[in-house]
Amino acid sequence: MCDVKDMTNKVTKIGLLGFGTVGREVFRILEEQKEYFARKMEYAIEVKSICVKDMSKDRGIAKKYFTTDYESIAKDPEIDIVIELMGDCPEALEAMQLALKNKNSVVTANKAIMARHAKELFELAYANGAEILFEASVAGAIPVLRSIREGLSANQIQSLYGIINGTANYILTKMTQEGADYEAVLKEAQEKGYAEADPTADVMGHDAAYKLSILAMLCHGKIVSVDDVFCRGIHYIKPVDIQMAEKFGYVIKLLGITKINGEHFEARVHPTMINKANPLAHVDGAYNAIEYKCNYAGDGMLYGLGAGGAPTAAAVVSDVIELVHSIRSENKINLQPSGFLSQSLVPAKPIDIQDLKSRYYIRFSVTDKPNVLSRMTTILGKNNISVQHLYQHGADEDQTIPLIIFTHDTLERDIRQALREIDKMDFITQTTKIIRIEE
Amino acid sequence: MCDVKDMTNKVTKIGLLGFGTVGREVFRILEEQKEYFARKMEYAIEVKSICVKDMSKDRGIAKKYFTTDYESIAKDPEIDIVIELMGDCPEALEAMQLALKNKNSVVTANKAIMARHAKELFELAYANGAEILFEASVAGAIPVLRSIREGLSANQIQSLYGIINGTANYILTKMTQEGADYEAVLKEAQEKGYAEADPTADVMGHDAAYKLSILAMLCHGKIVSVDDVFCRGIHYIKPVDIQMAEKFGYVIKLLGITKINGEHFEARVHPTMINKANPLAHVDGAYNAIEYKCNYAGDGMLYGLGAGGAPTAAAVVSDVIELVHSIRSENKINLQPSGFLSQSLVPAKPIDIQDLKSRYYIRFSVTDKPNVLSRMTTILGKNNISVQHLYQHGADEDQTIPLIIFTHDTLERDIRQALREIDKMDFITQTTKIIRIEE
């Protein structure tokens, strides 16, 4: 079996592509823990080369490690494992493909590339007797991919709810705890380094959609295009929404949700009202959590830090340790990297969001005109929307009155039709906003 | 490499030892999920034989499966994986040893045997090119062993707090929610089947101590004798303790705790007051949870069902699936079953509980005599115990007055010395009780 790598060599050599926050921490962990890791493996781990963009920067590490040539690392026959931390760019995909073709195993934290190219990378790895692991791509330090793929592998995962973007959760938590505006909290988060200068990917849910697509693959063996994941951000959430959630026993979280029931398959990311009694409601700040429901294991939750240099690097290095065992025991492929056989990994389209049946929170912005309520509720009734709570909030600074409705179970198609009609009315001052409710 | 098992055979054969609640569910999952598992593995899983005590019982399953002879199953060369669910008895250990000696891999849910014999079983497995997995032995459906061994393997786990006994947690939760007496709740739990007729192992912490010993092995690579795990049950907790906890912002949970800091190593099981803000404080009823703190991944928690037929069976079958991959890929040993090399798994003694430094809740039971407080506090002061809160609760039915003290950080040795002196006083009506506090 041992036709490629020299197994007499007691050192596992690493090529590191990218040396940002995570890359530096990976290097540090491998240096700091040599003695500890010797208790876990017979084989030492050694970084051989590091690919960076700018060779001139002083990184306090011997120059001999660095190169700007990722191809030479990916192809290096002395290297056993290529760690890809280049971010979402074509070179990252190219480097992984090149490494696998050269029978070098890959560890990556790249959610965007795994969400788009997982299956082809798995097949490339398999064809070349190499392996690919990507625990760090979802929820940082939380061992969620491994738990779904291995620890829960006897189960069908019926539903999964994830707080999988720390920036969005930090902002919503601050808004909840301090009653502050979205804009003010975002600005503060940017100043403190919790949000990036361009926060779009985090606050608009795109980052969470990538992660959800990966989670759906591991949960259900379905390849979901990120473009098919319904995705809404948190930018429209106002303090009044948070107060109304609180008043009726809910908390607002940006959730990635996937559910399966026979042919019915959901994959969506949006701000969601969840019951205060739900453990996810207590997951605050930059923490991530994944709540799941299985056919045998029942429900459970995994909770921890979803981002940050050291936590993400710890996930990367844990993958490396697994690969060291695997490479050194001459094992070809142990578990399928998705938990499913490649031929069982099939493309699937989630239901159209219009076909979602859910409870809804609706925030109308109205001015005080005659018969507002009766005109509105007539349209709601005509569209099969039945109201559970109706609450009129005090007027805000521009004399707009937020009128709040919690519906019973409703088809989103009906909600949208009703809102199209209502939003044309003369008493509506701003586009009506909705928040989906999960019990 | 393939000198033992016939790899051309596309079926993995299982021998099942024990057919109680968990065994029956294992059989059911393997039957029900044939189609689903075919998406995960190229190899079918088939139960070949089941060992039971009583052959005459009608189990609604063909007689051909059953035998009373566990040895024949353990030694059967046609069998690939022996699932041991016999409970804590000498035959269970014997069967596992026999299976491993015959190069049959083992999956077990046996916490008592794993706590006592893990290292010798690991070495036996290794020597025979077989494997042993035991995810179901701790916290049922929660993939905690795998998470520590693999997902967090780059980390040193500095502390771990576990709610790892569902019965004790159910009782404490009911006492907290309903203000009920221990005895009344225990009786109700027994009637509902949440507690066994003899609840000793659960309520006295012995079950949790076995699990903690296994967790400590996976966290630190230390073999801890269960006899060295300090262990106290929940039987002495009274409603007044729960009220006092509540009043000062705490919740009482039976925790398994292990901590490590250089040479300082703790492993203990006892009722503990934890802050209401701690995620563990919200883990109610029959749920289990494990909270950990790592040097790189930071802190996290795994939460789910800790017992029950289907959840435990799901953990067993997940181990089976991992072994199917491993056996069929001709891999000898992939990960060390503890995450540590056998020679690094060293016996270790936790600190004497007397050397514990902690905050303490102390419940004195006193009668109204002159100078009670001054006599008591003089002894406390003499023993270096400084009081943070002192609270006198109303007299209970037998005119005993609970006098409650929360201490600052104190050595348990000093607490014990002080209580020995105070409990001799004429104003003390019952032995003083303590609850350790973790922040």
Q: What kind of oligomer do you see?
A: homodimer
Note the beta-strand portion of chain A: 25-35%
CATH architecture level-2 label of the largest domain in chain A: 2-Layer Sandwich
- Specify Rg of chain A, calculated over alpha carbons: 24 Å
Q: What is the CATH C level class of the largest domain in chain A, in words?
A: Alpha Beta
Q: What structural class results from the helix and strand content of chain A?
A: alpha/beta
Q: How many separate structural domains of chain A? A: 3
| CATH level 4 superfamily of the largest domain in chain A | Dihydrodipicolinate Reductase, domain 2
Helix content of chain A: 25-40%
- Largest interface, C-beta within 8 A: A-B, 63 and 63 residues
Q: CATH topology of the largest domain in chain A, anyone?
A: Dihydrodipicolinate Reductase, domain 2
Q: Between the first and last Cα atoms of chain A, what is the distance in angstroms? A: 52 Å
Mean of residue pLDDT of chain A?
93
The largest β sheet of chain A comes out as: 11 strands, mixed
Q: What overall form of chain A do the CA principal axes indicate?
A: elongated
In total, the number of strands of chain A is 19
Uncertain runs of chain A: 1-7
Summarize the structure.
The structure is a homodimer of 439-residue chains. The first copy, chain A, has helices spanning 21-32, 34-38, 70-75, 90-101, 111-127, 144-151, 166-178, 182-192, 200-203, 206-220, 239-247, 309-328, 372-382, 412-422; strands at 11-17, 44-51, 66-67, 81-84, 105-108, 132-133, 157-163, 222-223, 230-231, 250-261, 264-275, 287-294, 299-305, 346-347, 357-366, 387-392, 401-407, 410-411, 428-438. By secondary structure, chain A is an alpha/beta fold.
